[in-house]
């Protein structure tokens, strides 16, 4: 036997040994591989199934909210409260649930039902996923509390030094509450902060300046 034939024989023997080892391993562990593949494929199917479910839920929430449009236009507090409650129950994480609650709060407030208005605003403030909706609920709830002369509770809702788009509104409302409390210097500072965050050509700036002028007149 030549050295080349001998080398090939050794190669064949090693290959057969490796194949035998693979067969033995597969016989003992193959079911684990099959299970892992099935789990992986199942997870892919589950992922796409979950996405489909979420899409269907979002569509259902959007349709439910669209169905409230006539009640929103009519400012029908009763229908809006019922619709908001249903959306909260079926789609609590949908942005439409918070929008419906905000609409229900507005209609309730305008009908004189402050308890319902506060309840809807509190829920919206805690659960809204959209910052604008959450901040609007916070402002409206603070105003309702101010009207009830619960000034400390109203002030506690308003974040200080907010640089976001609602910052000037928080400062302005804080100024209104402090004015009602007779804390003139603090109110002036709040209005000045609101003015600093508002463009000079903005009509809201003119309103703030009127309030500052009123404070100056009251202090003279």
From TrEMBL:
Signal peptide: none annotated. The keyword Membrane applies. Pfam families: TPR_21. Residues 23-216 form the Ancillary SecYEG translocon subunit/Cell division coordinator CpoB TPR domain. One of its GO terms (molecular function) is protein-containing complex binding. Gene3D superfamilies: 1.25.40.1040. It comes from the Bacteria. InterPro entries: SecYEG/CpoB_TPR (IPR018704), TPR-like_helical_dom_sf (IPR011990), YfgM (IPR026039). Its main location: membrane. This is Ancillary SecYEG translocon subunit. It comes from Pelomicrobium methylotrophicum. The lineage of its organism: Bacteria, Pseudomonadati, Pseudomonadota, Hydrogenophilia, Hydrogenophilia incertae sedis.
């Amino acid at each position: 036997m030549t050295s080349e034939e001998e080398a090939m024989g050794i190669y064949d023997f090693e290959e057969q040994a490796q194949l035998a080892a693979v067969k033995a391993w597969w016989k003992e562990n193959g079911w684990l591989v099959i299970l892992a593949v099935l789990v992986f494929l199942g997870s892919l199917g589950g992922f796409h199934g979950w996405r489909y479910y979420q899409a269907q839920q979002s569509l259902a929430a959007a349709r439910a909210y669209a169905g409230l449009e006539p009640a929103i236009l009519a400012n029908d507090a009763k229908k809006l409260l019922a619709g908001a409650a249903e959306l909260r129950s079926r789609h609590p994480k949908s942005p439409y649930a918070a929008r419906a609650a905000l609409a229900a709060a507005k209609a309730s407030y305008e009908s004189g039902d402050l308890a319902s208005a506060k309840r809807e605003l509190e829920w919206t403030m805690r659960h809204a996923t959209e910052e604008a909706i959450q901040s609007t609920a916070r402002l409206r709830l603070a105003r309702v509390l101010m009207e009830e002369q619960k000034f400390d509770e109203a002030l506690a809702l308003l974040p200080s030094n907010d640089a976001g788009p609602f910052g000037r509104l928080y400062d302005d409302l804080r100024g209104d509450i402090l004015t009602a409390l007779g804390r003139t210097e603090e109110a002036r500072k709040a209005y000045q902060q609101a003015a600093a965050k508002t463009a000079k050509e903005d009509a809201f700036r003119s309103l703030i300046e009127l309030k500052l002028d009123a404070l100056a007149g009251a202090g003279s």
